């Protein structure tokens, strides 16, 4: 990761000061860097000994960072990772345009791999992520959304870049197609579990720990799994309260909605859904060689369910 950070720092170099300032602001905020970590771990698990995985790990981090910049503008978010979002600090226009810069810089860096399959995977992932963003926008305030439609959004919007990261590692390593698919399955399942747990934290987390405002999903009209399950398993009165709050984005009812989510067992049911995805990720690792890197990925999937931030 030290080498990945070196690549990131070098490729953020530009003659436009505001681009560097905004880019470094959001990247320096930290974050879990899970996508580049997965690419590095999977590459080494498969025996890759080159250096291109450092470049591609930086590419996926740039793509992820670009989506964060655009997301925060669309969602009108004010807090990320415990500090003001880039759009709050620099304005919407700067955030959108610097997000565009990071996307285009990522595509420049992809060329270094000199591999059309690498380009194909990243181009497709970027397109699917954009589709997921639009799909989520269309679903805002839609209280009729079911679990399947919810999963479609998060597998496009969040899990796709996890999947691309682990698939890229297999491509770099020259893995056969069946092993590549197992690697991709691990990434997709882990990314899905990650987002499902993230949605739990919007109703069970602490703003000081999560680094975002509790109830943001409700304010934005996002029908996440805790709300979907609360409406499904709650009484008619409880379902009506959640439905109204979701359709109007009325955060004044947040304490009551949180109480309903907890009383109906929706949080436990959502965590169980995340556990099933984590188990799917762990099962996919059976196809990989047994070494410290694959063991690390197994531990990562197991520990994901315990995250509080």
From TrEMBL:
One GO MF term: all-trans-octaprenyl-diphosphate synthase activity
Gene3D superfamilies given in the database record: Farnesyl Diphosphate Synthase
Q: Where are the transmembrane segments?
A: none
Q: Which reaction does it catalyse?
A: 5 isopentenyl diphosphate + (2E,6E)-farnesyl diphosphate = all-trans-octaprenyl diphosphate + 5 diphosphate
For biological process, the GO terms are: isoprenoid biosynthetic process
What are its cofactors? Mg(2+)
Keyword Secreted included in the entry's annotation: no
Keyword line: Magnesium, Metal-binding, Transferase
CDD domains attached to this UniProt entry: Trans_IPPS_HT
Q: What is its EC number?
A: 2.5.1.90
Q: Which InterPro entries match?
A: Isoprenoid_synthase_dom_sf (IPR008949), Polyprenyl_synt (IPR000092), Polyprenyl_synt_CS (IPR033749)
Q: Does the keyword Magnesium apply?
A: yes
Matching Pfam families:
polyprenyl_synt (PF00348)
Name the family. Belongs to the FPP/GGPP synthase family.
**Function statement:** Supplies octaprenyl diphosphate, the precursor for the side chain of the isoprenoid quinones ubiquinone and menaquinone.
The protein's name is Octaprenyl diphosphate synthase
Species of the source: Pseudacidovorax intermedius
Its lineage opens with: Bacteria, Pseudomonadati, Pseudomonadota, Betaproteobacteria, Burkholderiales
